[in-house]
Amino acid sequence: MPPSPKSDPSDLPAKSVQADYLIVGGGAAGLSLAYHLSQEPRLADKTVLLIEPEAKDQNDRTWSFWTAEPHPFEAIVAHEWHQIAFRSPGFERVIDLGPYRYQMIRGLDFYTFVRQALAANPRFTLLRGTVDELTNTPTGVQARGSAGTATARYGFDSRPPDVVPNPAKHRYLLQHFVGWEVETDTDAFDPAVQEFMDFRGPQHHEARFIYVLPFGPRRALVEYTLFSETPLPKAEYEVQIVDYLENTLGLEPTQYRVVAEEAGAIPMTDHPLPARAGAHIVNLGTRGGRAKPSTGYAFRRIQAQSARLVAALAATGQLPADVTGDRWQFHLFDTLLLDIMRRRGETTRDIFQQLFARNPVERIFRFLDETTSWADNLRVMNSVSPGPFLRSIGHVLRGRPGQR
Ligand SMILES: Cc1cc2nc3c(=O)[nH]c(=O)nc-3n(C[C@H](O)[C@H](O)[C@H](O)COP(=O)(O)OP(=O)(O)OC[C@H]3O[C@@H](n4cnc5c(N)ncnc54)[C@H](O)[C@@H]3O)c2cc1C
């Protein structure tokens, strides 16, 4: 049975629906997969059901990422930069990105763009509701939840992961931040240069930096960001943003206004987040380990996985045997970096400084994108002081996170 006629997404039909593909959750990963599916002519006969509880009508986040390739969401890129800056005490560099661009997409623009594209396609049905249970059956998947029941050949699950932390075995950090979008009365920002990491402030035995997206000489998003285990009281981030605006940029308190705020905490962990949940279910997004453990970046990894899944489904009708393409050595690098961040957070600044001082930015981006060759991996590893890594290799071999 094809999906029922397109319904208002606010409907909650208590009935059973069938489709070829069921996507659970319509955030970054669910909508990305749906969009990639909608663009593949070889899958033009497939029906897709997407179940999402929220209206997705708020700008709840902003995605930034680097890319050297054109991608399906160029039309909604709000800003892009061709230069980034790295700064730490004693080392500052403005870096030309060459073939790369650093881009920003607003969450609301993304939700609206994809949902409008899907609404125009009768093969896609968007239901408003939760999925509480998703299970494999001999021939596919079955979902139960507030939207009734649904069956499909394959299920793609992007619900937040259910992680029960095991700190004796794994590392649990957060990339947490508070950001202020500010307007200034005088020119204060260089709109050509994205401030990627400014580590010049005190580290307090952690990794703490300022991150700036300048939209114009008088408007920018300024974030105080940490890689650490515990979020701070909000006022502590704000003190650091004020310090940056007034002491680094030299603004008087009367010369700037906060026009918007954002805050977030992205898990950075080596806790296993399996990419499959049985024969017919793929875990997507954060649930499937797409947030890179050592950086928190996920948007481009989500796009890469969507493209990979759609290519296999179009070519073979089946899921790919390997649904992520992850390579084990990069898991190891991530775990080592998390171990160092946890054990000696202040060392993170030195590691990033050495990376940026001793490698072309293309190599750093390819390394973080997990596309470097073994030779380039060796060059990257040779560019950083080996001591902290050797100690963390010991912890990894013993199967226990290092302690401070
Ligand atoms: C504030 C913030 C800023 C970020 N910035 C960046 C960035 O700049 N660059 C970058 O690369 N990454 C960034 N990330 C990390 C990552 O890209 C995002 O978290 C991304 O949204 C992850 O996609 P996702 O689909 O896994 O999760 P989400 O986008 O959160 O989507 C999950 C969806 O599942 C739905 N859901 C929940 N429960 C159920 C249920 N029971 N049934 C059905 N659906 C359900 C939710 O409503 C939600 O819509 C950021 C994360 C945050 C939180």
Short description:
This is FAD-dependent oxidoreductase. The chain has 404 residues and is α/β, with parallel strands linked by helices.
Describe the global form.
Answer: globular
What value does the average pLDDT take?
94
Structural domains: how many? 3
Provide the β-strand percentage band: 25-35%
CATH homologous superfamily of the largest domain, by name? FAD/NAD(P)-binding domain
Measured distance between first and last alpha carbons: 58 Å
Number of strands: 17
Bound molecules: flavin-adenine dinucleotide
Radius of gyration: 22 Å
DSSP helical segment count: 9
Oligomerization status of the protein chains: single chain
Under the CATH scheme, the architecture of the largest domain is 3-Layer(bba) Sandwich
Main sheet: strands, sense, barrel: 7 strands, mixed
The name CATH uses for the topology of the largest domain is: FAD/NAD(P)-binding domain
Structural class, please?
alpha/beta
| Helix content class | 25-40%
Low-confidence spans: 1-12
Order of helices and strands: EHEEEEEEHEEEEEEEEHEEHHHHHH
CATH class of the largest domain: Alpha Beta
